[in-house]
C-alpha cells in the first residue's frame, strides 16, 4: 500500500503544487491520461470548494490531502476545519443552466467512483475513491 500526504494553506496559489503532487502520485497507477486528468481536476475542484465555501476565501486556513493506493482502488481524503455545508446543499446545478459555478460536483462524480462527505466535530473530510479496474 502506497501512502502520501500533503498539507497546505487555503491560498489558491497552492493549488498548482497540489495538482502536481496528485499527478505524481497517480503516475504509479494504470489509469488512462484522461482518467488522471479528471481526478486531478476533481481534487482541484474540491479544494476550490473548500476555499470558497468552508473558509469563505480566507487564504490562511489548513487543508490536508492524504492519498493511498489500495489493492482495488485509489483513495484521496481532503480534510478541512471550516464551516460545514449541509449535505442537501451539495448539489450541482443542471447542465443546461448557463451561469458560473455548480459544475464541480458533476466533474468529481465523473472523475471518481465514490464520493463521501464525513462531517467531523470541526470541519469536513471528503473521501474520493477511484476503483482500479
Protein architecture, described:
The chain is an alpha+beta fold. The chain has a single domain, classed as 2-Layer Sandwich (Heat Shock Protein 90). The chain contains three helices and five strands, in the order βααββαββ. The protein has helices at residues 15-26, 33-54, 104-111; strands at 2-9, 62-69, 73-80, 114-119, 124-131. A five-stranded antiparallel sheet has the order 1-2-3-5-4, with helices on one face. A hairpin with a 4-residue loop joins strand 4 (114-119) and strand 5 (124-131). Helix 1 (15-26) packs antiparallel against helix 2 and helix 2 (33-54) runs antiparallel to helix 3.
Offer a few descriptive terms:
alpha+beta, single chain, 5-stranded antiparallel beta sheet
List the helices and strands and how they pair.
Blueprint: E1 2-9, H1 15-26, H2 33-54, E2 62-69, E3 73-80, H3 104-111, E4 114-119, E5 124-131
Antiparallel strand pairs: 1-2, 2-3, 3-5, 4-5
Helix pairs in contact: 1-2, 2-3
Helix content: 25-40%
Rg estimate, integer Å:
14 Å
Strand content of the residues, in percent? 25-35%
- List the domain count as a whole number: 1
Structural class: alpha+beta
Specify the CATH architecture. 2-Layer Sandwich
Strand order of the largest sheet: 1-2-3-5-4
Count helical runs.
3
Inertia-based shape: globular
Mean pLDDT: 90
- Unreliable spans: none
- The count of DSSP E runs of length 2 or more, i.e. the number of strands, is 5
Order of helices and strands: EHHEEHEE
Distance between the termini: 17 Å
Largest sheet: 5 strands, antiparallel
Q: What is the CATH C level class, in words?
A: Alpha Beta
Amino acid at each position: 500500500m502506497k501512502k502520501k500526504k500533503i498539507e497546505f494553506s487555503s491560498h489558491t496559489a497552492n493549488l498548482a503544487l497540489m495538482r502536481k503532487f496528485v499527478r505524481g502520485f497517480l503516475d504509479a497507477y494504470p489509469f488512462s491520461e484522461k482518467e488522471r486528468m479528471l481526478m486531478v481536476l476533481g481534487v482541484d475542484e474540491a479544494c476550490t470548494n473548500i476555499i470558497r465555501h468552508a473558509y469563505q476565501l480566507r487564504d490562511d486556513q489548513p487543508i490536508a490531502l492524504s492519498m493511498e493506493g489500495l489493492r482495488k482502488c485509489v483513495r484521496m481524503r481532503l480534510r478541512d476545519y471550516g464551516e460545514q455545508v449541509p449535505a442537501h446543499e451539495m448539489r450541482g446545478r443542471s447542465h443546461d443552466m448557463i451561469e458560473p459555478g455548480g459544475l464541480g460536483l458533476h466533474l468529481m462524480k465523473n472523475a471518481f467512483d465514490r464520493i463521501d462527505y464525513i462531517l467531523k466535530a470541526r470541519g469536513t473530510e471528503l473521501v474520493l475513491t477511484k476503483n482500479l479496474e
